[in-house]
Amino acid sequence: MHLPLALVVTLATSTLAIPAPTPVPTPDSSSPRAALRGSARNVYLTTCTTRSLSADSTSSSAILYNSGDTSSSNPSDVGTVLSESAIQWAGYTRRVPLGSGIFESKIDKGAETLEKSQIAGSAKLRREQFVCFRDGVSTFRFAGGVLGAETTVCTAEFWCASIAV
Fold first, then answer.
1. Which DSSP string do the residues of 19-36 spell out, in sequence order?
2. Between 49 and 83, residue with greater pLDDT
3. Where is the signal peptide (predicted)?
4. Phi, psi of 13 (to 5 degrees)
5. Using an 8 Å Cβ cutoff, are 66 and 76 in contact?
6. For residue 115, with 0-12 CB atoms within 10 Å meaning exposed, 13-18 middle and 19 or more buried, which class applies?
7. How many domains does the chain divide into?
8. What is the pTM of this model?
9. What would the mean pLDDT of 13-24 be, rounded to a whole number?
């Protein structure tokens, strides 16, 4: 059976729509990240590994939360970078399609070596501005596929918070 590429991408992305609870660390109140934890929108720039019966793969995704509560197990949207494998976020401008527009991140070169919660770059979603921080530890787990036989685990490389608090 042959499916158009757009449909395959849609189906692949939709498997990420059934998340399980996500542990999110509580930021230290002295960090710059703590000041933005109540942001209207939060986007996690992730590297994901999908394990299924047929094959394993890696990809990169932007996971959007429209409310300040990122401890929810239901993100507002997940956009996947169209690439053969995972990409580097640091040192590049990346554009990821989300339902509410194109999310464009500009993570500084070398930012992958920063300590957790250090400012790593900026981003925007249409006209809304974001500030991005190094993460490296937050994880997201999604189940999908036939009978839940496919599991995707994403690790947040960077976290971006809207400055429209």
1. BPP---PPPPTTSHHHHT
2. 49
3. 1-17
4. -70, -35
5. yes
6. exposed
7. 1
8. 0.75
9. 37
